[in-house]
Batch of 4 targets.
Target 1
Amino acid sequence: MESGAIEVSVEGGELLSAGGVLQGWRIAVVGMGYVGLPTALSFADEDADVVGIDVNEARLAAINDVQVDLSPRDWPRSVRALQQSALRLTSDSAELTAADAVIVCVPTPIDEHSTPDLGPLSAACATVVEHARPGQTIVLTSTTYAGCTQDLLVKPLQDRGFRVGTDVFVAFSPERIDPGVVDHAPEQTPRVLGGCTEACVENAMRFLTHTACELHVVSSPEVAEMTKLLENTFRAVNIALANEFANAARELKVDVMEVIAAASTKPYGYMPFYPGAGVGGHCIPCDPHYLLWQLRARRTNSPLVEAAMSAIAARPRDVVTQAARILADRGRSLKGARVLVLGVSYKPGLADVRESPALAIISMLNGQGAEVAYSDPHVAEISVRGVGRLTHQPAPDEQHWDLVVVHTVHPDQDHDWLTGQSAVLDTTYRLAAVAERHLL
């Protein structure tokens, strides 16, 4: 493609046959996680024949039993798609060959050293290449480094003898899914698309139209890959700034939430971000490290991003330090203290504990000798390094705690009982009415 973005706004259904549906299309979605499952449902809603492929048999069984964490909007969609066989689930990668389109939605995590773990993505792409056939369109959606589509799809396909843009069509279109936020449903969110050739763009647009309210086409997969990195790095840097401002406001005895609310009245040049105990989920704690990892290989620094990610990683330790300070002011130490962590999911209203700061907080509190428990009606059980398995405490208000660390405030919970506790560390900055409240 020629350099420079091709700006295209395509309303759903414009490029499809009469009726605006995907009837007759065979679409394979590789990876049935928090991105892949909603993506598969969006295609099933448009009458496509969808097969969801995942190597995790337990995950497939949970989806079949509708025992997975879904939004209220996706529950009925999932039941309907499974009952009507619009969505079939399998671990058999041979199903890929029959697909007209293949969407890769596998996780791209980091390891304990913040180094990208490309194992799942590399394996998935290798499988897709192995089963590719002429006429197929392959779209990678997993967040990754700039150039990954070329490395893991285009070059291996060429090695098999395919001409990309003629025999097969390859594009990158990063997912934009905000779990638990109804107003940010994928179909209501614009989507970026970068194809290897004009023909790749055109073929990908034919079915991706139904996964977004509009498509913004850019000049290459690399532009689309870096777009996703910018989106989540932007959030990471601004969350780190919000945390730093919260620390400054505490030192100066100013209400940081009132400051943020006041700054938010400015209609331009400002976007509100809020302080907290850290960041969780798959995006913000992980994605910027793909950029940093790629730059390090080129002996290039990104000091602002590096500082932001270091500050975010240190935030759970700041929580534990503040917890120790609060208890010390009451004449006791963390050792032997009964500490409750209230809410362990990384985000309100979800059961998702991926990269949740609560897990690190519990581990560090336990490491300093505290007797730690947690209460979260959305999460029945967790596994914490150095601690083992813990189960949800269903009636925390009936017990005495030396300290309650509020990590996640779920919208369906009553927090009035916190007023009766001797000390509360509010890492959410949202429980102003609680007596004996301390801020991070």
Note: The first helix runs from residue 36 to 45.
Target 2
Amino acid sequence: MTLAATTLSGSAASRLEGSSAEHRFYVGFAVVMAAALLLGFARTFFLRTWFPEWAQLHGAPEPFFLFHGAVFSLWFVLLIVQPSLVAAGRVDLHRRFGRFGAGLAVIMVGIGIVGPLIAARRPGGFIDVPMSPLQFLTIPWVGLALFAIFVTLAIVNRDNPQSHKRYMLLASFGILDAAVVRWPFDNMMAPLPIPGFDVSNLALDLFLVPIIVWDIVSRGRLHPVTLWGGLAVIASQPLRMMLGETSAWLAFAGWAVGLLGP
């Protein structure tokens, strides 16, 4: 009886340790993603007071993007808060904030549609982007589409924690590329030997590595969401470039930009 109780206690301890490790992983990974956002937008948004000349030359001049930045930043705050609440045993608050997160995601999709249209309508198009603004529209909008799809799947799978958590991380990838391409390193948009990929794509794809490693360590194999969701993220990068070069897309993008007026 004592041996059985000891064995049961040891098994329960192992599960508890595994759960604690999982909580640490998701909280830590969310913090890393938030740091990537801060690094990308430090000079033009978060710390623009300390970089006035850079912000003036490279930051969006329209006040709309201050609201845009605040709303999208709130998503990454929520990404840290939610697993932290679960780790603290406050699943009730996690669920309440989850409803708030769903509403926030809807607002983000609306803002994420309008923002690129405003940028594309500028005389010089997107700032620091050596590409036709109509062609470049595919990049933020495809990322936004992935965000919307993954958030929807996360909500549908909210009773499946393992799928839900991974969908939420993958959703954040769709909107993190705007920050990664702005990291203060040279040649972030330099093309790679693989058609349709540049350095920023590679940097973003490397964020999949910790999830893959965690799956293998904790499960012994890739979770289906990691596998198929990760492939969708990677495949979207060259596909959106190909889409942006089609006459059908250019016609649609021109019509969409025209909705904001002459």
Note: The chain is about 75% helix and 0% strand.
Target 3
Amino acid sequence: MTNPHVLASIVRASEQCEIVAHQDILDANGVKLWAKNQPISRALQQRLLERKLQQPLESCLRAEDGVTHAALTEQARALLDTKPLLLSGVGPWADALLADIGLLPLHPVAQLLLTAARSNTPNAYQHGVMSMLLAGALATEAGGDRYQVRLHMLGGLLHDLGELYIQGDYLTTDGLPVDRDAWRQICVHPRVGEMLLQRQTDYPRELCRAVGEHHERGNGIGYPARSRQISRLGRSLAAVEVFMGVLGTEHPDAWEHAGLAVRLLPSEFDLAAASFASHAARRHQALGSQPSIPAPDEIWARAQSHKSAIQAALKESWLLGSLAVSPRLTAEAGLVFSILQELLLACDALGLWAPRQLVGEQLHELHLVNQELNYRMQVLPRVVCWMDDRWSGKEQAALDRIWGALRGERLEEATS
């Protein structure tokens, strides 16, 4: 059956540009639902929802006056002109990357979905264009040839097409999922995008795979597959996704935060990502913008609070792993323990838990660590448990002790 979310997006987009059937649209029994060369309209929407099609809908349609190379280039120029943080990341290679946009292969299916995104979710479309530029810049700085640079640019542009296939109101105003069902939808969108490109376009398999990996991490705590074997392009797209998440704050020190996010746990990202962010931060600092940070005592107190919460959650996850409530719960507890231990040790290695009087110039970095830890501690329960939340009451109570400790709640002594 046709996905209702992408169908609704395409139909809405057809009200702003002409989208036509480039072949007869037939149901599974060969009954013609829509004739070739006929513009689609809302009259077609209900028919498509009720029938299984012989060919995927996306392959049957063309956006005649949709997103073009010229439109992408114009959007990219506008973003570089209005977003200093983006320009700081892309600046040295901006002209070359803008020229390369016209050479990117836009498959009709990809062009159709980009058109739908531009009409329905302009922010998501902008996200793709900005990611395209950052991915190209990252590949260029890392010494990639022109083919690799353009492949990275395509990956950045197309990596989130899978989001068109999931419910649109799955995020709260602060960017976090509204509930676990919403989180599960978010977690599958990379795989949806990978399958779409693999089955309905002629893009290289390397590109399709990387789209499916753009939320994976080298230490196995990403999604949707928790894979540790990530392709080079997939690692680059994952780093770009982190950059975009931080740059969206538009804080003057966003590039410093982005650099810390990709180097905090060395097992997660390549050194090239941290180097790229560091160079971008220097370019942005040269513009003279100064970040405002909380008072030193506030930064220190918050860091100690994070440290105490992580230590308490470490203890609870170790205890849960030793209780052997169930094999899968033991495995989840072990995963949580390894993640938290890696976070704690990474902060130790950075010297961020040093006595207050010794921190000195590290206060700004400690402030950035606080922001990053706060985010990671919020999403950890969903990252760990998204694939299976059908826990028994006893299992859920045991997990809740870990999450409560991570939130800084005082816990009663566990009883067997």
Note: The radius of gyration is 23 Å.
Target 4
Amino acid sequence: MGLASACGPDTAEPAGQGLVLVRSVEGSNEIVRVRLRDAAERAVTSTPEREESWPFWSSDAGQLVFQVGSERSGSELMLWSSPSGERPLTQTANRVEHWPVWSPMGSRLAYAFLAAGASGGITVVDTQTGESRVLANEDSSDQLIRPGFSPDGASLVMQRRGAERGSSLWIARPGLPLRPLTAGDAWFDIKPYFSRDGERIFFSRRSATGGPNDVMSVTLAGNELRSHTSLPDADDHSARPSPTRDEIAFVSNREGYPAVYLAPLPDGPARRLSPPEMAALAPRWSADGERILVTSTPASAPLPRLSDPASLTAARVAVFDRQGQVLLDAPGMMPDWMPAWP
């Protein structure tokens, strides 16, 4: 089977009123929509012969992008919209396409690719016109991954991961060549996200030799490096700036298990948002900055890993507000905000 038939219009409610996520259905990963107000569900895909992952929605484009396949066997990106159904983003064979992210404005999409026997890079494509450009990786031993747009959609930050050394952040700005924001083999810098004013980039940093992460930020010029909310022995990472307030949501194990915390910027005290019985990962803000979406497990259970099918079936998706009240708790993983149907 292909596209499920029970998918209605996508503009009936704001994106903060609905979710899209991945769920294991009889051993196959499928994409499901969930309505926040009553936890009602609708299937997007029903494809036992293939595996779907990482769905991301764009209200401007009116489309969902998701990954089919795996990095080991090759993967491609698909687009879905209602009522048109799904189509491949590209027609390029024998390469891995992953880490898709939508521009906050318009129908542009950036993603990372790795071609068989060649270096990879980042492609930016307009899903309406098909116009695209490639930010190439000149060093075939490195990979460009995890692209992220600035709030105005003009700039793009990404991670450059070395084959045998650290990881640095790079930025592409209009009219300027691709250049490094952070550098040095001593550090492993990952998960970059722009601040809501577009002036700073928040990211996770640890030593290239291992150890806990710290929440850091840097200006677009690559200077004024700052540490935020981090504790010396805690693993603090995955910081996401609020789209409406000067604050960040981030993950920390400072209480013995991964939980989501909220901290005012630049250096306010952090408070735990996720409930004490929940291990929470990968926070994602709603557009109004009032809710946070996470992948979760019980605090005593193993964290979900793609290499561990049993942990994936136990994964859940939770939504809570800025006071920590749980608004939804449902089976699934890899969630994103998406408008609910009427």
Note: Residues 318 and 329 are 4 Å apart (CA to CA).
